Amino acid sequence: MKRGFLPLREFRGLADANRQIHAWVMNEAGSRIHGTTREMPLKRFAEVERSLLISLPDVPPELAVWAKGKVHRDAHVQFEQSFYSVPYRLVGQELWLKATDTMVTLYRGQESVAAHVRLTRPGGRCTVDVHLPSAAQAWQLQDTQWCLACAEQIGPACYALVHALFGDKVLIKMRSVQGVLRLKEKYGAVRLEAACSRANHYGTPHYTAVKTILQKGLDQLTLLNAFDALASTYTEGGRFCRNTQTILQ
């Protein structure tokens, strides 16, 4: 096909290409001696190969891609930048993943452990609640009012930060809010309230900011000490700052 048919040919469309291919096979390629079999392909097909053919299946076969994936700690397997949940007891194990145009099915050996509609947008997550551990399922059941009440118990700064996160009309940042509230389990309510107060003060009411403040211990410093070494640039004059008279000379 590459060397004997395609060179120097032009096609007006798919129908014209099929017509030219059929004429080439029947009148030229099929009637000359093949270099491997030393027979004419059309004659060999009629005498040997035709009897070996079987009927096509009634249902067309479903094409699929197979891949192996490891179950992450959040009970999800990644495939093509999307994430699919499996039962959390399988965390750390390698599973086979079968992806068709419409479905993604995960197997442990011969056993199907999860099936999801295939996602098309990178970064998407398909999660079945029962796949998560009981503690995570409990968090999934909490609504915005529960989160606000929990934040209010921690302190006014935490409540203000959570309220700001929920104030996004485009997307309710439930996962970020739950992440902030979970920090209480590791750092305690007092430190979490101080970290939220610092994040609010500097205009960064986000989960990442609160987590970083707690990790670096900045919640235990006064707001004045939070400036870095560049603070003198703004309070005492810049190192390379020159007045107008000097510049114009």
Descriptive tags:
elongated, 249 residues, 7 strands, alpha+beta, single chain
User: For the residues shown, what is the average pLDDT?
Assistant: 83
Number of domains: 3
Low-confidence stretches: none
Radius of gyration: 33 Å
Total beta strands = 7
Described by the principal axes of the CA atoms, the overall outline is elongated
**In DSSP terms, counting alpha (H) and pi (I) runs of 4 or more, how many helices?**
10
Listing every helix as H and every strand as E from the N terminus to the C terminus, the arrangement reads HHEEEEEEEHHHHHHHH
Give the terminus-to-terminus CA distance: 79 Å
Share of helix among residues? Answer: 25-40%
> Could you give a short account of the major beta sheet?
4 strands, antiparallel
- Report the structural category: alpha+beta
Order of strands, widest sheet:
1-4-5-6
Strand content: 5-15%
Would you spell out the secondary-structure blueprint of this structure?
Blueprint: H1 14-27, H2 41-49, E1 65-70, E2 76-79, E3 82-85, E4 94-99, E5 103-108, E6 111-117, E7 125-126, H3 134-140, H4 144-154, H5 156-166, H6 174-187, H7 189-201, H8 207-216, H9 231-235, H10 244-248
Helix pairs in contact: 4-5, 4-6, 5-7, 6-7, 6-8, 7-8
Protein name: Integrase catalytic region
Domain Transposase for insertion sequence element IS21-like C-terminal: 56-127
Organism: Caballeronia humi
Describe what this molecule looks like in 3D.
- The protein is α+β, with helices and mostly antiparallel strands.
- It has three domains: 14-52, no CATH class; 65-131, no CATH class; 142-226, no CATH class.
- The protein contains ten helices and seven strands.
- It has helices at 14-27, 41-49, 134-140, 144-154, 156-166, 174-187, 189-201, 207-216, 231-235, 244-248, and strands spanning 65-70, 76-79, 82-85, 94-99, 103-108, 111-117, 125-126.
- Strand 4 (94-99) and strand 5 form a beta hairpin.
- It starts with 13 loop residues before the first helix and ends with a helix.
